Amino acid sequence: MKKYTFRLHALERMRERDISIDEVKQAIELGEIIEDYPSDRPFPSKLAMCCTTKLIHVVYAEDGNEVIVITAYRPSYDKWENDLRTRKKV
Q1: Cross-sheet strand order for the sheet of 66-73
Q2: What is the mean pLDDT of residues 55-69?
Q3: What is the DSSP letter of 77?
Q4: Pick from 12, 48, 1, 8: which is nearest to 28 by CA?
Q5: CB 36, CB 21: distance < 8 Å
Q6: What angle is formed at CA 40 by the lines to CA 33 and CA 45, rounded to 5 degrees?
Q7: Which of 2, 43, 54, 78 is the most exposed place for a label (fewest CB within 10 A)?
């Protein structure tokens, strides 16, 4: 069983954006990985996308059985293409 650790930043942003802990866990467990950040430190991280009650993106890292939630947000079309999987080119 995975242990979830939520960074303070993640909890603050989730509260601001009305994203629940359950939504985040579902996104990590059932979502699609749309970006990989292998050079992130102290652990490589990933960006998952999932539609639970609403579409969300979750950035997280894994260290063994621990999942470290870095942030969560609802993607917007001003930064993402229509598929909400591809970042817009700047």
Answers
A1: 3-6, 66-73, 55-63, 45-51, 32-37
A2: 96
A3: T
A4: 48
A5: no
A6: 25
A7: 78
Q: What local confidence, expressed as pLDDT, does residue 52 receive?
A: 76
List CB contacts of 69: < 8 A, sequence separation 6 or more.
Answer: 4, 5, 6, 7, 10, 24, 28, 58, 59, 60
Encoded tokens for 4: 């979830």
- Asked if 11 contacts 20 with a C-beta cutoff of 8 angstroms, the reply is no
Q: Which residues are CB-contacts of 21 (< 8 A; sequence separation ≥ 6)?
A: 4, 6, 14
pTM of the model: 0.92
Instruction: Single out the residue of 28, 27, 13, 26 nearest to residue 73, CA to CA.
Output: 13
Handedness of CA 16, 68, 56, 40 (dihedral sign): positive
Count of all residues that appear for the chain in the document: 90
